[in-house]
Amino acid sequence: MKVVLIGGGSYTWTPTLAGDLMLREGLAGGHLSLVDLNAAAAEQMRRYCALMNERLGAGWTVTADSLTDALRGADVVCVSISTGGLQAMHDDYHIPEKYGIYHTVGDTVGPGGIARTLRNVPVLVDIARQMERHCPDAWMVHVTNPLSQLTRAVARRTSIRVVGLCHNYAGTMAMLAKYLDARYEDIDAVSVGVNHYTWLKDITCQGKPVADRLTLAGYEAYHRDKHMALVTNTTDDIIKEALEMKTNKEYYLNFALYEQLGYFPVGSSNHVAENLPYYCNHPEAMQKYHIRRKGVLPRRQVLIDDRKRSVEQVLAGEQPLPEMKLSHEGLSAICEALQTGRAERVMVTMPNAGQVANLPLGAAVETWAVAGRGGVDPVMSGDVPLVAFGSMLSIVGEQELAVEAALTGNREAVYQAMHISPLVQDKDRARELADELLEAGRAYLPQFFAAQQA
Protein backbone atom coordinates (compact mmCIF):
# COMPACT_ATOMS: atom_id res chain seq x y z
CA MET A 1 0.00 0.00 0.00
CA LYS A 2 1.16 3.51 -0.82
CA VAL A 3 0.13 6.08 1.78
CA VAL A 4 0.69 9.80 1.26
CA LEU A 5 0.89 12.24 4.17
CA ILE A 6 0.25 15.81 2.99
CA GLY A 7 1.56 18.00 5.78
CA GLY A 8 4.11 15.23 6.27
CA GLY A 9 6.62 17.67 7.73
CA SER A 10 4.51 17.97 10.89
CA TYR A 11 6.59 17.31 14.01
CA THR A 12 3.44 16.42 15.95
CA TRP A 13 1.29 14.39 13.56
CA THR A 14 3.79 12.53 11.39
CA PRO A 15 5.63 10.50 14.06
CA THR A 16 2.30 9.24 15.42
CA LEU A 17 0.62 8.47 12.08
CA ALA A 18 3.73 6.98 10.50
CA GLY A 19 4.49 4.92 13.59
CA ASP A 20 0.94 3.53 13.57
CA LEU A 21 1.26 2.49 9.92
CA MET A 22 4.56 0.73 10.56
CA LEU A 23 3.22 -1.07 13.62
CA ARG A 24 0.42 -2.71 11.61
CA GLU A 25 1.59 -6.14 10.42
CA GLY A 26 -0.89 -6.13 7.54
CA LEU A 27 0.81 -3.05 6.09
CA ALA A 28 4.41 -4.30 6.22
CA GLY A 29 6.42 -3.39 3.15
CA GLY A 30 4.36 -0.33 2.30
CA HIS A 31 5.45 2.99 0.81
CA LEU A 32 5.08 6.19 2.85
CA SER A 33 5.36 9.40 0.83
CA LEU A 34 5.72 12.70 2.72
CA VAL A 35 4.64 15.98 1.12
CA ASP A 36 5.05 19.40 2.69
CA LEU A 37 5.44 23.03 1.62
CA ASN A 38 8.40 23.07 4.00
CA ALA A 39 10.77 20.75 2.13
CA ALA A 40 13.36 20.82 4.92
CA ALA A 41 10.78 19.64 7.46
CA ALA A 42 9.62 16.88 5.11
CA GLU A 43 13.21 15.67 4.69
CA GLN A 44 13.76 15.70 8.46
CA MET A 45 10.63 13.64 8.97
CA ARG A 46 11.65 11.28 6.17
CA ARG A 47 14.86 10.53 8.04
CA TYR A 48 12.98 10.21 11.33
CA CYS A 49 10.41 7.82 9.84
CA ALA A 50 13.23 5.80 8.28
CA LEU A 51 14.69 5.35 11.77
CA MET A 52 11.31 4.17 13.07
CA ASN A 53 11.03 1.74 10.17
CA GLU A 54 14.53 0.40 10.86
CA ARG A 55 13.75 -0.02 14.56
CA LEU A 56 10.56 -1.97 13.81
CA GLY A 57 11.88 -3.92 10.83
CA ALA A 58 8.63 -3.08 9.04
CA GLY A 59 10.06 -3.03 5.52
CA TRP A 60 8.57 0.33 4.55
CA THR A 61 9.97 2.63 1.90
CA VAL A 62 9.90 6.27 3.05
CA THR A 63 10.27 9.15 0.60
CA ALA A 64 9.80 12.94 0.56
CA ASP A 65 8.15 13.92 -2.72
CA SER A 66 6.41 16.60 -4.71
CA LEU A 67 2.62 16.39 -4.59
CA THR A 68 2.35 15.07 -8.14
CA ASP A 69 4.96 12.35 -7.62
CA ALA A 70 3.41 11.38 -4.30
CA LEU A 71 -0.10 11.00 -5.72
CA ARG A 72 0.92 8.69 -8.55
CA GLY A 73 -0.14 5.22 -7.52
CA ALA A 74 -1.38 6.28 -4.08
CA ASP A 75 -3.96 4.15 -2.28
CA VAL A 76 -4.67 6.48 0.68
CA VAL A 77 -3.97 10.22 0.90
CA CYS A 78 -4.00 11.67 4.40
CA VAL A 79 -4.17 15.47 4.66
CA SER A 80 -3.09 17.36 7.78
CA ILE A 81 -2.69 21.06 6.98
CA SER A 82 -3.48 24.50 8.33
CA THR A 83 -3.68 27.14 5.61
CA GLY A 84 -2.23 30.36 6.98
CA GLY A 85 -0.63 28.62 9.95
CA LEU A 86 -0.63 29.93 13.48
CA GLN A 87 -0.95 33.60 12.55
CA ALA A 88 -4.21 32.98 10.72
CA MET A 89 -5.47 30.95 13.69
CA HIS A 90 -4.46 33.82 15.94
CA ASP A 91 -6.63 36.17 13.85
CA ASP A 92 -9.53 33.70 13.97
CA TYR A 93 -9.37 33.85 17.73
CA HIS A 94 -8.68 37.51 18.47
CA ILE A 95 -10.64 39.41 15.81
CA PRO A 96 -13.98 38.01 17.05
CA GLU A 97 -13.09 39.14 20.58
CA LYS A 98 -13.52 42.74 19.37
CA TYR A 99 -17.14 41.79 18.71
CA GLY A 100 -17.73 40.14 22.08
CA ILE A 101 -17.18 36.57 20.84
CA TYR A 102 -14.77 34.50 22.93
CA HIS A 103 -13.68 31.32 21.19
CA THR A 104 -12.65 28.39 23.33
CA VAL A 105 -11.27 26.40 20.36
CA GLY A 106 -12.03 28.40 17.21
CA ASP A 107 -11.42 25.74 14.57
CA THR A 108 -14.91 24.42 13.71
CA VAL A 109 -17.87 26.69 14.45
CA GLY A 110 -18.47 30.40 14.81
CA PRO A 111 -16.38 33.11 13.15
CA GLY A 112 -13.14 31.16 13.60
CA GLY A 113 -14.60 28.00 12.07
CA ILE A 114 -16.07 29.95 9.16
CA ALA A 115 -12.76 31.70 8.45
CA ARG A 116 -10.85 28.43 8.64
CA THR A 117 -13.37 26.84 6.25
CA LEU A 118 -12.83 29.59 3.71
CA ARG A 119 -9.05 29.11 3.80
CA ASN A 120 -8.85 25.32 3.81
CA VAL A 121 -11.65 24.29 1.43
CA PRO A 122 -9.92 25.47 -1.79
CA VAL A 123 -6.73 23.64 -0.80
CA LEU A 124 -8.40 20.30 -0.05
CA VAL A 125 -10.61 20.49 -3.14
CA ASP A 126 -7.51 21.18 -5.27
CA ILE A 127 -5.75 18.16 -3.75
CA ALA A 128 -8.83 16.04 -4.47
CA ARG A 129 -8.91 17.23 -8.07
CA GLN A 130 -5.27 16.26 -8.48
CA MET A 131 -6.15 12.88 -6.99
CA GLU A 132 -8.80 12.52 -9.71
CA ARG A 133 -5.99 12.84 -12.27
CA HIS A 134 -3.26 10.75 -10.59
CA CYS A 135 -4.99 8.27 -8.22
CA PRO A 136 -8.75 8.38 -8.85
CA ASP A 137 -9.43 5.19 -6.89
CA ALA A 138 -7.59 6.34 -3.76
CA TRP A 139 -9.29 7.37 -0.53
CA MET A 140 -8.75 10.79 1.01
CA VAL A 141 -8.56 10.27 4.78
CA HIS A 142 -8.00 13.67 6.35
CA VAL A 143 -7.49 14.99 9.86
CA THR A 144 -7.80 18.68 9.00
CA ASN A 145 -10.22 21.09 10.67
CA PRO A 146 -12.94 22.02 10.20
CA LEU A 147 -13.48 18.33 9.57
CA SER A 148 -17.16 18.42 8.58
CA GLN A 149 -16.92 21.33 6.16
CA LEU A 150 -13.84 19.98 4.37
CA THR A 151 -15.36 16.51 4.01
CA ARG A 152 -18.53 18.08 2.64
CA ALA A 153 -16.67 20.27 0.14
CA VAL A 154 -14.56 17.43 -1.29
CA ALA A 155 -17.63 15.20 -1.61
CA ARG A 156 -19.65 17.97 -3.27
CA ARG A 157 -17.07 19.02 -5.84
CA THR A 158 -15.11 15.86 -6.69
CA SER A 159 -15.49 12.13 -7.25
CA ILE A 160 -12.90 11.27 -4.61
CA ARG A 161 -14.07 9.07 -1.73
CA VAL A 162 -13.40 10.97 1.47
CA VAL A 163 -13.62 10.49 5.23
CA GLY A 164 -12.55 12.75 8.06
CA LEU A 165 -10.99 11.46 11.28
CA CYS A 166 -11.11 13.05 14.72
CA HIS A 167 -9.80 11.66 18.00
CA ASN A 168 -12.38 13.34 20.25
CA TYR A 169 -14.38 10.12 20.55
CA ALA A 170 -11.25 8.18 21.55
CA GLY A 171 -10.38 10.84 24.11
CA THR A 172 -13.86 10.75 25.61
CA MET A 173 -13.81 6.94 25.78
CA ALA A 174 -10.39 7.05 27.47
CA MET A 175 -11.78 9.45 30.08
CA LEU A 176 -14.90 7.35 30.68
CA ALA A 177 -12.79 4.20 31.02
CA LYS A 178 -10.64 5.86 33.66
CA TYR A 179 -13.68 7.33 35.38
CA LEU A 180 -15.36 3.89 35.50
CA ASP A 181 -12.11 2.12 36.45
CA ALA A 182 -12.34 0.00 33.31
CA ARG A 183 -10.30 -0.77 30.22
CA TYR A 184 -10.60 1.41 27.12
CA GLU A 185 -11.98 -1.50 25.09
CA ASP A 186 -14.69 -2.13 27.72
CA ILE A 187 -16.49 1.14 26.92
CA ASP A 188 -18.84 1.48 23.96
CA ALA A 189 -21.57 3.81 22.74
CA VAL A 190 -23.50 4.96 19.69
CA SER A 191 -22.33 8.43 18.68
CA VAL A 192 -24.30 10.78 16.40
CA GLY A 193 -23.96 14.35 15.22
CA VAL A 194 -21.42 16.47 13.41
CA ASN A 195 -17.74 16.65 14.23
CA HIS A 196 -17.04 18.44 17.51
CA TYR A 197 -20.76 18.29 18.32
CA THR A 198 -21.69 14.64 18.67
CA TRP A 199 -23.70 13.00 21.43
CA LEU A 200 -23.39 9.54 22.95
CA LYS A 201 -26.39 7.22 23.18
CA ASP A 202 -26.48 3.80 24.86
CA ILE A 203 -23.20 4.07 26.79
CA THR A 204 -22.12 0.67 28.14
CA CYS A 205 -19.21 -0.81 30.08
CA GLN A 206 -18.62 -4.50 29.37
CA GLY A 207 -22.03 -4.52 27.70
CA LYS A 208 -23.91 -3.12 30.71
CA PRO A 209 -25.56 0.35 30.79
CA VAL A 210 -23.78 2.92 32.95
CA ALA A 211 -26.37 5.72 32.97
CA ASP A 212 -26.70 5.83 36.75
CA ARG A 213 -22.94 6.00 37.27
CA LEU A 214 -22.29 9.18 35.23
CA THR A 215 -22.85 11.93 37.78
CA LEU A 216 -21.36 15.36 38.29
CA ALA A 217 -20.53 14.47 41.87
CA GLY A 218 -18.77 11.37 40.62
CA TYR A 219 -16.75 13.41 38.15
CA GLU A 220 -15.77 15.87 40.88
CA ALA A 221 -14.49 12.95 42.99
CA TYR A 222 -12.71 11.40 40.00
CA HIS A 223 -10.99 14.68 39.19
CA ARG A 224 -10.05 15.30 42.82
CA ASP A 225 -8.55 11.85 43.28
CA LYS A 226 -6.68 11.40 40.00
CA HIS A 227 -2.94 11.92 40.35
CA MET A 228 -1.79 12.31 36.75
CA ALA A 229 -2.96 13.70 33.43
CA LEU A 230 -5.44 11.66 31.41
CA VAL A 231 -3.68 9.63 28.72
CA THR A 232 -5.89 9.33 25.64
CA ASN A 233 -3.25 7.70 23.41
CA THR A 234 -3.84 10.31 20.71
CA THR A 235 -1.90 13.37 19.56
CA ASP A 236 -3.95 15.37 22.06
CA ASP A 237 -1.66 14.03 24.79
CA ILE A 238 1.27 15.89 23.27
CA ILE A 239 -0.70 19.11 22.97
CA LYS A 240 -2.13 18.95 26.49
CA GLU A 241 1.30 18.36 27.97
CA ALA A 242 2.70 21.39 26.14
CA LEU A 243 -0.26 23.60 27.10
CA GLU A 244 -0.02 22.54 30.77
CA MET A 245 -3.63 21.38 30.98
CA LYS A 246 -3.09 18.68 33.60
CA THR A 247 -5.46 20.10 36.23
CA ASN A 248 -8.25 21.42 34.01
CA LYS A 249 -11.74 19.96 34.59
CA GLU A 250 -12.12 19.46 30.87
CA TYR A 251 -15.23 17.24 31.01
CA TYR A 252 -17.16 19.09 33.72
CA LEU A 253 -19.71 20.56 31.30
CA ASN A 254 -20.22 17.13 29.72
CA PHE A 255 -21.30 15.61 33.03
CA ALA A 256 -23.48 18.63 33.83
CA LEU A 257 -25.25 18.35 30.47
CA TYR A 258 -25.67 14.61 30.94
CA GLU A 259 -27.41 15.18 34.25
CA GLN A 260 -29.68 17.81 32.69
CA LEU A 261 -30.40 16.20 29.29
CA GLY A 262 -29.69 12.48 29.57
CA TYR A 263 -27.14 12.32 26.74
CA PHE A 264 -23.38 12.70 26.96
CA PRO A 265 -21.56 15.07 24.56
CA VAL A 266 -18.29 13.97 22.95
CA GLY A 267 -15.07 15.94 23.31
CA SER A 268 -13.79 18.35 25.90
CA SER A 269 -16.07 20.96 27.44
CA ASN A 270 -14.36 23.62 25.35
CA HIS A 271 -15.46 21.94 22.11
CA VAL A 272 -18.99 21.44 23.41
CA ALA A 273 -19.36 25.00 24.70
CA GLU A 274 -18.85 26.63 21.30
CA ASN A 275 -22.01 24.93 20.04
CA LEU A 276 -23.96 26.16 23.08
CA PRO A 277 -22.49 29.66 23.40
CA TYR A 278 -24.12 30.56 26.71
CA TYR A 279 -21.31 28.56 28.29
CA CYS A 280 -18.46 30.54 26.72
CA ASN A 281 -19.92 34.03 26.21
CA HIS A 282 -20.67 34.73 29.87
CA PRO A 283 -17.81 34.94 32.41
CA GLU A 284 -19.97 33.63 35.23
CA ALA A 285 -20.98 30.55 33.24
CA MET A 286 -17.40 29.96 32.15
CA GLN A 287 -16.25 30.00 35.74
CA LYS A 288 -19.10 27.77 36.92
CA TYR A 289 -18.53 25.14 34.21
CA HIS A 290 -14.72 25.39 34.10
CA ILE A 291 -14.53 26.64 30.51
CA ARG A 292 -11.27 28.29 29.49
CA ARG A 293 -10.63 30.71 26.68
CA LYS A 294 -7.91 29.41 24.43
CA GLY A 295 -5.30 31.41 22.57
CA VAL A 296 -3.06 30.02 19.85
CA LEU A 297 0.16 31.94 20.31
CA PRO A 298 2.75 31.66 21.74
CA ARG A 299 2.26 28.24 23.34
CA ARG A 300 1.44 26.43 20.10
CA GLN A 301 4.67 27.73 18.59
CA VAL A 302 6.52 26.60 21.69
CA LEU A 303 5.03 23.12 21.16
CA ILE A 304 6.22 23.03 17.54
CA ASP A 305 9.68 24.25 18.52
CA ASP A 306 9.96 21.63 21.27
CA ARG A 307 8.89 18.82 18.96
CA LYS A 308 11.30 19.97 16.26
CA ARG A 309 14.13 20.08 18.78
CA SER A 310 13.33 16.54 19.93
CA VAL A 311 13.32 15.23 16.34
CA GLU A 312 16.66 16.89 15.63
CA GLN A 313 18.17 15.38 18.78
CA VAL A 314 17.05 11.91 17.72
CA LEU A 315 18.46 12.40 14.22
CA ALA A 316 21.77 13.61 15.70
CA GLY A 317 21.97 10.55 17.95
CA GLU A 318 21.73 12.69 21.08
CA GLN A 319 18.64 10.89 22.39
CA PRO A 320 16.94 7.58 21.52
CA LEU A 321 13.76 7.14 19.54
CA PRO A 322 10.74 7.29 21.85
CA GLU A 323 8.93 4.04 22.51
CA MET A 324 6.44 3.29 19.74
CA LYS A 325 2.96 1.94 20.45
CA LEU A 326 -0.22 1.88 18.43
CA SER A 327 -2.29 5.01 19.08
CA HIS A 328 -6.05 5.49 18.91
CA GLU A 329 -5.77 7.59 15.73
CA GLY A 330 -7.85 5.94 13.00
CA LEU A 331 -5.69 6.25 9.87
CA SER A 332 -3.72 3.02 10.20
CA ALA A 333 -6.83 0.99 11.05
CA ILE A 334 -8.53 2.14 7.85
CA CYS A 335 -5.41 1.50 5.77
CA GLU A 336 -4.98 -2.03 7.12
CA ALA A 337 -8.65 -2.82 6.59
CA LEU A 338 -8.51 -1.58 2.99
CA GLN A 339 -5.35 -3.62 2.37
CA THR A 340 -6.21 -6.90 4.08
CA GLY A 341 -10.00 -6.98 4.07
CA ARG A 342 -10.13 -7.53 7.83
CA ALA A 343 -13.02 -5.38 8.99
CA GLU A 344 -12.30 -2.51 11.38
CA ARG A 345 -14.88 -0.33 13.13
CA VAL A 346 -13.83 3.32 13.05
CA MET A 347 -15.40 6.65 14.01
CA VAL A 348 -15.54 8.81 10.87
CA THR A 349 -17.07 11.89 9.31
CA MET A 350 -18.77 11.12 5.97
CA PRO A 351 -21.60 12.55 3.88
CA ASN A 352 -24.94 11.58 5.39
CA ALA A 353 -26.52 8.72 3.44
CA GLY A 354 -29.05 8.09 6.16
CA GLN A 355 -26.72 7.00 8.96
CA VAL A 356 -28.07 9.93 10.99
CA ALA A 357 -31.74 9.69 10.19
CA ASN A 358 -32.94 13.18 11.12
CA LEU A 359 -30.10 15.29 9.66
CA PRO A 360 -30.06 16.47 6.01
CA LEU A 361 -28.80 14.01 3.42
CA GLY A 362 -25.36 14.98 2.13
CA ALA A 363 -24.37 16.96 5.21
CA ALA A 364 -21.14 15.67 6.74
CA VAL A 365 -21.97 13.67 9.87
CA GLU A 366 -19.91 11.68 12.37
CA THR A 367 -20.82 8.08 13.25
CA TRP A 368 -19.34 4.62 13.39
CA ALA A 369 -18.32 3.07 10.07
CA VAL A 370 -16.87 -0.27 9.02
CA ALA A 371 -13.75 -0.29 6.87
CA GLY A 372 -12.80 -3.29 4.73
CA ARG A 373 -11.44 -4.17 1.33
CA GLY A 374 -14.51 -2.69 -0.35
CA GLY A 375 -14.14 0.71 1.30
CA VAL A 376 -15.56 2.54 4.31
CA ASP A 377 -19.28 2.13 4.94
CA PRO A 378 -21.19 4.15 7.57
CA VAL A 379 -23.19 2.35 10.25
CA MET A 380 -26.85 3.33 10.60
CA SER A 381 -26.95 5.14 13.95
CA GLY A 382 -30.47 6.57 14.27
CA ASP A 383 -31.50 10.08 15.25
CA VAL A 384 -29.76 12.95 16.93
CA PRO A 385 -31.59 13.19 20.29
CA LEU A 386 -34.32 15.83 20.29
CA VAL A 387 -32.60 17.73 23.10
CA ALA A 388 -29.71 18.47 20.71
CA PHE A 389 -31.60 18.49 17.41
CA GLY A 390 -32.39 22.22 17.18
CA SER A 391 -28.89 23.38 18.03
CA MET A 392 -27.46 20.71 15.70
CA LEU A 393 -29.51 21.99 12.75
CA SER A 394 -28.23 25.52 13.39
CA ILE A 395 -24.64 24.23 13.22
CA VAL A 396 -25.34 22.27 10.02
CA GLY A 397 -26.88 25.34 8.42
CA GLU A 398 -23.87 27.45 9.34
CA GLN A 399 -21.50 24.82 7.94
CA GLU A 400 -23.44 24.41 4.69
CA LEU A 401 -23.36 28.16 4.06
CA ALA A 402 -19.65 28.36 4.88
CA VAL A 403 -18.91 25.55 2.42
CA GLU A 404 -20.99 27.26 -0.26
CA ALA A 405 -19.09 30.49 0.32
CA ALA A 406 -15.69 28.75 0.25
CA LEU A 407 -16.48 26.95 -3.01
CA THR A 408 -17.97 29.92 -4.85
CA GLY A 409 -16.41 33.07 -3.36
CA ASN A 410 -19.92 34.32 -2.62
CA ARG A 411 -19.52 37.00 0.04
CA GLU A 412 -23.25 37.01 0.76
CA ALA A 413 -23.01 33.38 1.83
CA VAL A 414 -20.25 34.37 4.29
CA TYR A 415 -22.52 37.07 5.73
CA GLN A 416 -25.38 34.59 6.05
CA ALA A 417 -23.22 31.97 7.74
CA MET A 418 -21.92 34.57 10.19
CA HIS A 419 -25.43 35.89 10.86
CA ILE A 420 -26.98 32.52 11.72
CA SER A 421 -23.99 31.30 13.75
CA PRO A 422 -25.10 30.76 17.36
CA LEU A 423 -21.80 32.23 18.60
CA VAL A 424 -22.50 35.60 16.90
CA GLN A 425 -24.92 37.26 19.27
CA ASP A 426 -24.77 40.82 17.90
CA LYS A 427 -26.33 40.09 14.51
CA ASP A 428 -26.13 43.75 13.46
CA ARG A 429 -22.32 43.47 13.31
CA ALA A 430 -22.13 40.11 11.53
CA ARG A 431 -21.21 41.66 8.16
CA GLU A 432 -18.60 43.93 9.71
CA LEU A 433 -17.01 40.97 11.48
CA ALA A 434 -17.08 38.88 8.29
CA ASP A 435 -15.42 41.65 6.30
CA GLU A 436 -12.65 42.06 8.86
CA LEU A 437 -11.90 38.32 8.91
CA LEU A 438 -11.92 38.20 5.09
CA GLU A 439 -9.50 41.09 4.91
CA ALA A 440 -7.20 39.49 7.49
CA GLY A 441 -7.12 36.28 5.43
CA ARG A 442 -6.86 37.98 2.02
CA ALA A 443 -3.63 36.18 1.09
CA TYR A 444 -5.36 32.78 1.46
CA LEU A 445 -8.74 33.64 -0.09
CA PRO A 446 -8.30 33.90 -3.86
CA GLN A 447 -11.94 33.01 -4.43
CA PHE A 448 -12.88 36.36 -2.86
CA PHE A 449 -10.00 38.61 -3.93
CA ALA A 450 -8.57 37.18 -7.19
CA ALA A 451 -10.19 39.83 -9.38
CA GLN A 452 -8.89 42.67 -7.20
CA GLN A 453 -5.40 41.18 -7.06
CA ALA A 454 -5.35 40.74 -10.87
Labels describing this entry:
13 strands, metal ion binding, single chain, 19 helices, cobalt, globular, 6-stranded parallel sheet, 454 residues, 4-stranded antiparallel sheet, alpha/beta
Description:
InterPro entries: GH4_Enzyme_sf, Glyco_hydro_4, Glyco_hydro_4_C, Lactate_DH/Glyco_Ohase_4_C, NAD(P)-bd_dom_sf. Helix 4 packs antiparallel against helix 5 and helix 5 packs across helix 16. The radius of gyration is 21 Å and the shape is globular. By secondary structure, it is α/β, with parallel strands linked by helices. It has a six-stranded parallel sheet. The protein has a domain of 122 residues. The protein is 47% helix and 15% strand. It has 19 helices and 13 strands.
Percent helix, as a range, is 40-55%
Strand order of the largest sheet: 3-2-1-4-5-6
* Structure summary, number of beta strands: 13
Which shape, going by the Cα principal axes?
globular
Low-pLDDT stretches = none
